[in-house]
Amino acid sequence: MTEIQIRERVRAFIVENFLFGRETTFQDEHSLLEHSIVDSTGILELVSFIESELQVPVGHEELLPANLDSVDNIVRFVVDRQATDAP
């Protein structure tokens, strides 16, 4: 999966599940927590999505804002993990 495809899927998941289909002006670099797009339960939903849909396991030590607090961070995390986990 390319970085563009990952970004599109992550953004679509956020819009559908947290913004209830309403496209807003949030940018990919915006903090999902600071902009009240997700809460702590939402982070768990994002992790479940990353693991099941993007096939990237997320360890407890990886549950950090640097990995999960924006679309940009999530995409970077997934791309890095895919590169690390590639055979």
Structural notes for this entry:
This protein has helices at 3-17, 40-53, 65-68, 71-85. By secondary structure, the protein is mainly alpha-helical. It has one domain: ACP-like (Non-ribosomal Peptide Synthetase Peptidyl Carrier Protein, Chain A, Orthogonal Bundle), CATH 1.10.1200.10.
Secondary structure: elements and pairs:
Blueprint lengths: L2 H15 L22 H14 L11 H4 L2 H15 L2
Helix pairs in contact: 1-4
> How many domains would you count in the coordinates?
1
- Which CATH architecture would you pick? Orthogonal Bundle
- DSSP helix fraction: 55-70%
Largest sheet: none
* Oligomer class: single chain
- By DSSP, the count of extended strands is 0
Task: Briefly note the CATH topology name.
Answer: Non-ribosomal Peptide Synthetase Peptidyl Carrier Protein, Chain A
| Radius of gyration over all CA atoms, rounded | 12 Å
Shape label: globular
Average pLDDT: 93
Strand content: under 5%
Low-confidence runs: none
How many angstroms does the end-to-end distance come to? 15 Å
Structural class: mainly alpha
CATH class: Mainly Alpha
CATH homolog superfamily = ACP-like
